[in-house]
């Protein structure tokens, strides 16, 4: 073997270098796309304030949304978005936690796999299906029980609970299964019952991951558009009752973007709502990553 051949990189080394180049190129393309979208959305989102002279404070605190009259108050949609998200999250969490505990700690293995498969199937169901269920089942049932139209905050909350429940459950199952077996064995060895072990050992260990699952679920709920738009009633007003129609950021954007002309105050106002939605989503994701990092440490 000549000295020249010894100095040549091996086939595996060349393949590894080429693989790294392709991965780097893919990362660069994705990063460029994300930056482009952010710049585009920020540019469109501030047009209402720069081009039409609407104050940011007035936009964030105003309570009337009527672009045709020059009123751009986003506070009702922001508050409604937070209300339906928080309520849905805190209803879905205990349900998801109970199912996750059943999958990881209580049921026999064959039933665990069956239930886990059903949960994973629910995660993949399109949001329009949940919205259709809400429109054809939830809304008529609420109308029968409580009167009124059936459209409103409660219908949106029920639909969002159905949507984020499988997401929170799936992530919680992964978190609970990450608990070291030595913790369970040690607790049982000290005479603790199964429920004592769950309550005093497993749940405290998995707390950070469970909170992360909740935040991810709420982030999905906050950004959901179609399913919420189908059942909430789409009336812009401050939240004043579970059975009263309301509107979220996403529902107003969904219903209005196709009926407005590009460059008009009405259209720019919708882009400003989209910018607020983006900022809120980034905050949710940041909280999730922060919680996940603390849980690992």
Automatic annotation (TrEMBL):
One of its GO terms (molecular function) is phosphate transmembrane transporter activity. Residues 78-288 form the ABC transmembrane type-1 domain. One of its GO terms (biological process) is phosphate ion transport. SUPFAM superfamilies: MetI-like. Gene3D superfamilies: MetI-like (1.10.3720.10). GO terms for cellular component: plasma membrane. Belongs to the binding-protein-dependent transport system permease family. CysTW subfamily. This is Phosphate transport system permease protein. It comes from Limosilactobacillus gastricus DSM 16045.
């Amino acid at each position: 073997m000549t000295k020249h051949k010894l100095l040549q990189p091996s086939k595996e080394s060349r393949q590894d270098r080429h693989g790294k180049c392709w991965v780097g190129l893919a990362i660069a393309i994705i990063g460029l796309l994300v930056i482009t979208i952010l710049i585009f959305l920020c540019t469109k989102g501030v047009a209402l304030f720069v081009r039409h002279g609407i104050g940011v404070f007035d936009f964030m605190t105003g309570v009337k949304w009527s672009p045709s009259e020059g009123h751009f108050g986003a506070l009702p949609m922001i508050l409604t978005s937070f209300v339906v998200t928080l309520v849905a999250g805190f209803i879905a969490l205990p349900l998801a936690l109970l199912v996750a505990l059943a999958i990881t700690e209580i049921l026999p293995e064959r039933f665990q796999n069956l239930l886990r498969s059903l949960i994973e199937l629910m995660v993949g169901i399109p949001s329009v299906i949940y919205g259709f269920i809400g429109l054809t089942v939830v809304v008529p049932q609420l109308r029968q029980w409580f009167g009124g139209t059936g459209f409103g905050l409660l219908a949106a909350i029920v639909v969002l609970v159905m949507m984020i429940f499988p997401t929170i459950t799936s992530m919680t199952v992964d978190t609970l299964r990450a608990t070291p077996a030595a913790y369970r064995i040690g607790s049982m060895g000290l005479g603790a019952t199964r429920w004592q072990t769950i309550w005093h050992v497993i749940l405290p260990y998995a707390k950070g991951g469970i909170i992360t699952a909740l935040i991810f679920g709420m982030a999905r709920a906050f950004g959901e558009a179609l399913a919420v738009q189908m059942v909430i009633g789409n009336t812009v007003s401050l939240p004043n009752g579970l059975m009263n129609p309301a509107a979220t950021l996403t529902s107003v954007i969904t219903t209005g973007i196709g009926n407005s002309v590009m460059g008009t105050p009405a259209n720019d106002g919708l882009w400003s709502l989209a910018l607020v939605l983006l900022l809120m989503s980034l905050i949710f994701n940041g909280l999730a990553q922060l919680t996940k990092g603390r849980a690992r440490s």
